[in-house]
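Annex B. Sample input.
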Amino acid sequence: MLLPYTILLRMSPFIYGSVETAEASTGIYYRSLVGWIESPVWLGVLAILLIFIEAWLLNHLLNRNRLEKNLSSIAGLLYILLMSAHGSFLSLTPVIVANLFVLFGFQAIFKIYKKPLSAIYIFNAGLMFGIASLVFRPYQMLLFLGVLGVLILNSLNLQRFFQFLIGFIAAYYLSYVVFLNLGESAAFLNDLWYFRLSNPFPLPIAGNVILAITGFLILVVTLSYNAYMLKKSIQAQQKIDLFFWLMLLLLVGVFMATGLELYMLTLLAIPLAALLHMNVLKFKNNFVPEFIHFLVLIGILAYHYSVHLLQ
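Annex B, continued. Sample output.
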């Protein structure tokens, strides 16, 4: 049911013909993808498919690693909600494309827990995180997350550090070779080092509201830290810690952007969805979270369509 749910939340741009693409801080892979597809409609369709796949991958990641005793699809549902909450999130943003590789990287890094022979997983995590950073530059902060992941879930030594680093660098080296053969090596190199911070304020009213809601959700998961760790195995606790580190590093990574846009708040969708689903599961009465979800869903849909109807 996640696919029709995704379509429901992201249908308004197709009805009103307002599917757009992002511009600020986009990586060379994202720009190549947008230039290759060109059609805004097909870009919107691709965004729906990617978010559905990512929601499924997030559910699979959390359920496979038993971060909660009860298996559920709540994290994927929350991910779709967070990725579709605002009108500026409804285009094919670089975050949507990059998150696919972030989740693949998390799957690899989670497999190294207490494994002495984990080189292939460490390398794959570095490779996936490297590709994600080539889609959206603020994801270069994943370099630090990978090192922390090896340190927390296994044990960091010089060999494992270089295994991850070589995987990360391999994404850049192989990409450079590809763009060199395409005659675009200069554009690739310029893309790596161009940083120009912009002031996003003042935001419109809707932007301030979504910013305040994001801050509230960050506060909720931060205050829930002890509850997340209660009656959990050491392995589950360490993997939950990685989601907190991801959230912190991406908050810093936003300021690496070459122009701050509201859609960059979706950088936090993976850690927030992964952590908030544990809050939902703690409700003994299902009516409360279901009622809140219904109100949020109706509110998001009303906002999406009212924006177009009032134009």
